[in-house]
TrEMBL record, chains A, B:
Parts forming coiled coils: none
GO cellular component: plasma membrane
Limits of the CSC1/OSCA1-like cytosolic domain: 58-213
InterPro entries for this protein: Csc1-like, CSC1/OSCA1-like_7TM, CSC1/OSCA1-like_cyt
Lineage: Eukaryota, Viridiplantae, Streptophyta, Embryophyta, Tracheophyta
Any GO MF annotation of the entry: calcium-activated cation channel activity
Keywords attached to this entry: Ion channel, Ion transport, Membrane, Transmembrane, Transmembrane helix, Transport
Transmembrane segments: 16-35, 226-250, 318-337, 410-427, 433-450, 471-492
Protein name per Swiss-Prot or TrEMBL: CSC1/OSCA1-like 7TM region domain-containing protein
Length: 575, 575
């Protein structure tokens, strides 16, 4: 497994230069592939922006921190004055209101309506149920519920009426333009002298919006961000403590005492030792399985205005969690906290410590890829988590058997796959025997995820490739980690020449990353003027104004729409 | 001097809380002042942008990385097509050419012309000089020089003609708009899918331009930047080595041996010891005096397109140099390199080491402020450096007695004054007796610099307050350094409670800095849309188009203008 056991005997062997040339080849090839891929994805993003030019979010910007109009004292007035003065193709605006209460009321109305319907259907059904119905005086119950529903609907209508809405305005608005060029200009420029007033961003897709977060003011959002960062950091660093505690409590011997039927497992020969051996690992994996959901929950406290932003945040947090608690904790002994403390006090020793730890643990990662990778795929195919969640929801909260269609869980899949890439890159030179296992993992993963994406999940948002810069960064980190490990390893094997020769490689890698930040990243944050103009010209040639009417109505929050119980449209768009 | 010698006896004295409350008061007061000042300077910047709305740089943007037009194969054609299509108020463009040679030729023509004139004047002067003139056959010399001048002027005209210029085009152009709003939009947006092609920035003021750097392509500029960063870093870290070497060589005893007249100093009683004692210090100060010029020289290799950018770069480099080689080297013994190495291996000990070093060295900084500060002012008033430089130039290079008018040397003054602020802030709690000396220093400095600015120096550029964010950052660094020192000091004085209580103060300070970056900094990098529109409206109300014609001609490089020897206008604008 470890090629270095050979060279370990002859210290400072010249055969280490073979490893060095492998390192060079892999480094440059990864850089080449990364460049090619970033280029390709940038091209596709621009194509995609052009292709989806009729989408309402291309005409619409989100304005926050609106000052009040000095003449009329309202936010809407200021927006109207400002944009009609500065942009010729300004169309209209839609002020956002802070009435999260309506959403809850609409949900309540929706659930009462469902209950009434179910009970009515039961009444029609058969004689036994009819008797049961009479016996439990459900008729009175239905009447009571109908009265309640009427009250709720009245309350909703009262809240939705003009006068109440006026009082609940927040300094946030959607502004629609007739041309995409003006929307692009308005979204990316600093409009006023104070950069925190009249802050503009591109509006997310209507179905991607998290409406209730729009009302959060800036300073609270900054506080939330800081809080979430601290919480995610603490979770990552102190994760091992609760896990070890649970592992100490939940032992097979103790379970047998408290839950006697578990003794049945002992009857099957050999199973006892399997359970005793695997239980701590299963507990750890169970916790790790829950982490993406915990991170997503944390990210939703951050006050992101779009689900896609939230999931990208969660994706980043999960990746760094896995890097710390799966990769570093596996290769280094002890808790992550001790390791961090030691690294902080002796930063110069990091490469050599990393090297000695990495070269010792390649077997462990083959096991990791084989067990966790494969079990992850089977869980994904079986949809174990979602089915359990659905079962629990249906039988405890009484939501019935609605069809469930969720978006692809990028925040769970991307970090795990990125971790596999990281393991592959770090071990590519040290222990190449790991690579075939990774190849199987990726081939299987490709088959599984292509199927899942096409048949199981729903498209919930379209970020036009916003995930790629993050994945690029993970791969960049992998290559950096590989090079630092190799610097340490060549040092350990008494080859300081090779160790020093790796440093320019590391510098080149960092410079390449800086180049990518300048060459490709801006296109993922901005929309080029040329692309917007081309779409505008296409519309002009067609003699239409694109999907402009759609854009105006698309950014009406769901709670502003009438409560239509029959068609079931009360259910908010954001689930 | 040191208040802590009192509390040193009673370890962990409760009187340390007085120091802690002083620390709190100073921290919050500095934060309050910084906020007030940043707010004020932001307001002034916007006022200034409005006031100078007729300046040509408000209509003009600089475009770099222009692709060639697919139809005609020229850069100019592409610029014209692109901007006339995307911006309604596009006016004209001015392609930049890579003929730095012309500038040298024009300088040559200018100097030959001067020599001829001088000699002719000599001929008219008096009889002795006339005889000398005849005797040395200067007449033939003049004729030869006149012929040479003619050749040079012909060469310039040949280079300036259309056909030669066409071949020397570089993908850089100045683009002028009729409205400031479009100029602002075009300067700040990403225009094409590739963010490195058609890169736009605001054009610097014409008199601030460094024309010859316009032709430098991006990748070379990035290389230069990296090179300058490495060079400045090396100079800062290894500065002490050559200084110590020179100090070793130049000793008074050795000088006496090589230059016997120096023995005369020994005749004056007491002077011998003064010279022996002060010589090493004077050598160090002499080197430090030269550093700003060295840094400015380095910064000019970076390929900045404006003198103001170059000087801001130099200003930053000089500040960090002084922080390392005056502040840290004075308080810590040994060379900066050793200190960096030790800090790198034991980052946790930094606060306590800093604290023990800082509290021991307050006398030294009083001496520093009194001697270097005062001698700096006298040098500034006497203009010693410039006069020497002018003398050397006049007598060796033969440039004659031109009047010299330089711009205010911000890159030299700002870092030195910032260092004084840093010393004041760091010692404000530890050794408040230093403050009266600083007060004298600042009062004197105010008087000196106000006078110098009004009567001695010329205005060479106007950045609309671009220096402030840097000065703000230096003061922020001072406060951070003070707080880290106090954390260490409370720890050393067995007051861990006060030590931990300082950490929130440090966090608050960092958060305040982040807030400033969001609230104020963008206004220094962008120009608000509202301001540009207001200036446009003012012009419309006046029925003019501002100073638009001036804008078009202002960005003609000096070497494109006819060589007019009589009026002396050959001399390029950028000196």
């Amino acid at each position: 497994m470890e090629l270095f056991t050979v060279t370990n005997v002859t210290r400072g062997s010249d055969r280490l230069w073979v490893h060095f040339s492998c390192l060079c080849f892999i480094s440059f090839y990864v850089v080449y592939l990364l460049h090619k891929e970033y280029n390709e994805i940038t091209r596709r993003r621009i194509e995609h922006l052009k292709y989806h030019c009729k989408r309402p979010d291309q005409y619409t910007i989100l304005v926050r921190g609106i000052p009040t109009c000095p003449d009329h004292g309202t936010y809407g007035c200021y927006v109207d004055h400002f944009f009609s003065k500065h942009y010729q193709t300004y169309q209209s605006y839609q002020i956002v209101h802070d009435i999260g209460n309506i959403e809850a009321l609409q949900k309540l109305a929706y659930s009462i309506d469902k209950q009434i319907k179910r009970k009515r259907e039961t009444r029609k059904c058969n004689i036994w149920q009819w008797i049961w119905f009479k016996f439990t005086s459900e008729a009175i119950n239905i009447q009571r519920q109908e009265r309640k529903l009427k009250d709720v609907l009245l309350a909703i209508r009262l809240l939705q009426c003009e006068n109440t809405l006026k009082q609940k305005e927040v300094p946030v608005a959607f502004v629609t333009f007739k041309s995409r060029l003006d929307a692009v200009h308005a979204a990316e420029m600093q409009l006023l002298g104070n950069p925190l007033s009249l802050v503009t961003t591109y509006a997310p897709e209507p179905k991607d919006m998290i409406w209730k977060n729009l009302a959060i003011p800036f300073w609270r959002m900054a506080m939330y961000k800081l809080g979430v960062f601290v919480a995610a950091f603490l979770l990552t660093v102190f994760f091992t403590i609760p896990v070890t505690a649970v592992q100490g409590i939940v032992q097979f011997n103790k379970i047998k005492r408290w839950f006697p039927p578990a003794r049945a497992l002992q009857l099957i020969p050999g199973l006892n030792s399997v359970v005793t051996g695997y239980l701590p690992g299963m507990i750890l994996n169970g916790f790790i399985y829950l982490v993406p959901f915990a991170m997503l929950g944390m990210a939703s406290f951050e006050g992101c205005i779009a689900n896609s932003q939230k999931e990208i945040k969660a994706c980043n947090m999960v990746f760094y969690f896995l890097l710390g608690n799966v990769f570093f904790l596996s290769i280094l002994s002890g808790s992550l906290l001790d390791q961090l403390g030691e690294s902080f006090t002796h930063p110069k020793d990091i490469p050599s410590r990393l090297a000695s730890a990495v070269s010792a643990q390649s077997d462990l990662f083959i096991t990791y890829i084989l067990t966790n990778g494969m079990s992850g795929f089977s869980l994904e195919v079986l949809q174990f988590g979602l089915l359990t969640w659905q079962f629990l929801k249906a039988h405890s909260l009484g939501h019935g058997k609605e069809p469930y269609l969720y978006g692809f869980p990028y925040y769970r899949v991307v970090p795990i796959v990125s971790l596999a890439i990281l393991i592959g890159v770090v071990y590519a030179v040290v222990a190449p025997l790991l690579l075939p296992f990774l190849l199987i993992y990726f081939l299987l993963g490709y088959a599984v995820y292509i199927n899942q994406m096409e048949d199981v999940y729903e498209f919930t948002y379209d970020t036009c490739g916003q995930y790629w810069p993050n994945i690029h960064h993970y791969i960049f980190l992998s290559v950096t980690l590989m090079q630092i490990t190799m610097i340490g390893l060549f040092g350990l094997k008494s080859k300081p020449g090779a160790s020093f020769a790796t440093i320019p490689l590391l510098v080149f890698n960092i410079l390449f990353n800086e180049y990518c930040k300048v060459r490709f990243l801006p296109t993922f944050h901005h929309r080029p003027v040329q692309v917007a103009k081309q779409s505008d010209e296409l519309d002009e040639a067609e003699g239409t104004t694109g999907n402009l009417d759609g854009a105006i109505s698309a950014y009406k929050p769901p709670w502003m729409r009438p409560t239509n119980l029959e068609s079931g449209s009360v259910r908010p768009l954001t689930v």
